[in-house]
Amino acid sequence: MEDKIKYEMEFPIQVSPSLLYQYISTPSGLSEWYADNVNSRGEFYTFIWSGSEERAKLLSKKSPERIKFRWIEDEGEEFYFELRIQVDEITKDVSLMVTDFAEDDEVEEGKMLWENMVSNLKSILGSS
């Protein structure tokens, strides 16, 4: 298996951290912007996109700050994806920080996918 490359992205979002946390940490919130449907049973989440399903294990969750998953297909690997809320101490600006992994030739595609999904999230939240 080819090594994956870690990449991080920052998306400024004009919304309260507690509201944003609901959208990144709950199945109903994630269903609004990340996948067509999301179900959870204990620490396992099922993400559904137009007929295809991917399962992920919840690795950690810290309210109202971050949530981290590992795809079941990456079990035993160090790969994960994390959604973290960062608030600037001085300006109080809120950003959604995304950490993910992709194979070398898929990093740009992965970044574009996140940009599209976070764009959907921003329009749902009414943030510019």
UniProtKB/TrEMBL annotation:
<protein>
    <recommendedName>
        <fullName>START-like domain-containing protein</fullName>
    </recommendedName>
</protein>
<dbReference type="InterPro" id="IPR045736">
    <property type="entry name" value="START_2"/>
</dbReference>
<dbReference type="Pfam" id="PF19569">
    <property type="entry name" value="START_2"/>
</dbReference>
<dbReference type="InterPro" id="IPR023393">
    <property type="entry name" value="START-like_dom_sf"/>
</dbReference>
<feature type="domain" description="START-like">
    <location>
        <begin position="1"/>
        <end position="126"/>
    </location>
</feature>
